[in-house]
Design goal:
Strand order of the largest sheet: 2-10-9-8-5-3-4
Oligomer: single chain
Number of helices: 9
Order of helices and strands: EHHEHEHEEEEEEEHHHEEHEEH
Number of domains: 2
Helix content: 25-40%
Bound molecules: pyridoxal-5'-phosphate
CATH architecture of the largest domain: 3-Layer(aba) Sandwich
CATH class of the largest domain: Alpha Beta
Number of strands: 14
């Protein structure tokens, strides 16, 4: 079976070059006589893998020195709790921006720890817009401001980084990290589950400014305290070693392709092609306001919803898989992260054209 174009929102496609490299090193990692999966996380070999991955990520994202990079487990969903536990620092409330499904999840979890103020929301447009920064009602006493730069399910993405003054800005970048250059110094904390744009599931990356670490709420379990992992180089306990290694291979792959500028150029092109096609057709529709459409997740509906099943079936036969939209919104969704080649997007557009011809 040839490899398909996998449009899954996550776990998502990995670059073929990375998979081949991992396959080549599977049984014997560079003369170690064993797989990376079988290595002690305390070994010299794994130490070099871990260090190289972190230094490559720091280089790609130009992460300033006063930020720690943590390689954790528990997914972005665990961060929904770890963030208030670590960042409240004696304060009573935090500001959240509600732009859809993942914002809501973060908000619900934070409510277990503090008062949550919704400083802005796009719920009245059914999450097809981004509230302009001027409309936000921020509290200067808030512990932090949390937002979701890319809503993976709604396919809506912030066209700007919000200014929040002295209040640390916290971003759930699970589905947009590494898609383009980013000024990390604008943020107090950035977090992302790996399975969309970094590597395999099981690894969660947290990039956090030094001064925000070290005053967790009382009763915080050791494993949920950022200080534990910062002090131990993310090796307080056994880290997700193989996912860490794979992420390192992805970082090298990005470096070889022009870094985040190279990624941005490819991603912009892919997104423009697909939105351009959808907008030029009367048969397909994307509901998101053009100024805040996601480069990574592109939801669309068919004019005749009864044809969804047929569309998905024929697409899969053509090697275009996982196009079903999230169960909460229906329709279709094409996730086109860094690893989706331009040919994958062209193949999808070709298929959509043919399908439209046959069904109007
Ligand atoms: C996928 C996703 C999550 C959930 O990530 P897990 O690692 O499964 O916990 C959270 N936020 C966003 C924006 C996502 O895309």
């Amino acid at each position: 079976m040839p490899r398909v174009f996998n449009f899954s929102a996550g776990p998502a496609m990995l670059p073929e070059e990375v998979l081949k490299r991992a396959a080549g090193e599977m049984e014997d990692w560079r003369g170690a006589g064993m797989s990376v999966m079988e290595m002690s996380h305390r070994s010299k070999e794994f130490g070099s893998i871990a260090e190289k991955a972190e230094s490559d990520l720091r280089e790609i994202m130009a992460i300033p020195e006063n930020y720690k990079v943590l390689f954790l487990q528990g997914g972005a969903s665990s961060q929904f709790a770890m963030i208030p536990m670590n960042l409240l620092r004696g304060k009573k409330s935090a500001d959240y921006i509600n732009t859809g499904y993942w914002s809501k999840k973060a908000i619900a979890e934070a409510k277990r720890f503090c008062e949550v103020r919704i400083a802005a929301s796009s719920e009245e447009t059914n999450f097809t817009t981004i509230p302009p920064r001027e409309s936000w009602d921020l509290d200067p006493e808030a512990a932090y401001v949390h937002y979701t730069p890319n809503e993976t399910i709604g396919g809506v993405e912030f066209p700007y980084i919000p200014e929040t003054g002295e209040v640390p800005l916290v971003a759930d970048m699970s589905s947009t990290i590494l898609s383009r250059p980013l000024d990390v110094s604008r943020f107090g904390l950035i977090y992302a589950g790996a399975q969309k744009n970094i590597g395999p599931a099981g690894l969660t990356i947290v990039i956090v400014r030094d001064d925000l670490i070290g005053s967790p709420v009382s009763g915080t379990p050791t494993m949920f305290d950022y200080a534990t992992h910062a002090k131990a180089g993310s090796m307080y306990n056994t880290p997700p070693t193989y996912a860490w290694y794979m992420a390192g291979l992805v970082f090298e792959w990005i470096k070889e392709r022009g870094g985040l500028e190279g990624m941005a150029e490819r991603n912009r092109k892919k997104a423009e092609r697909l939105y351009g096609f959808i907008d030029s057709s009367d048969f397909y529709h994307n509901p998101v306001n053009p100024d805040c459409r996601s480069w990574m997740n592109i939801p669309f509906t068919l004019k005749t919803p009864g044809l969804d099943g047929k569309f998905l079936e024929l697409a899969a036969e053509a090697g275009l898989v996982n196009l079903k939209g999230h169960r909460s919104v229906g329709g279709m969704r094409a996730s086109i992260y860094n690893a989706m080649p331009e040919e994958g997007v062209e193949a999808l557009i070709g298929f959509m054209e043919e399908f439209e011809k046959k069904h109007v």
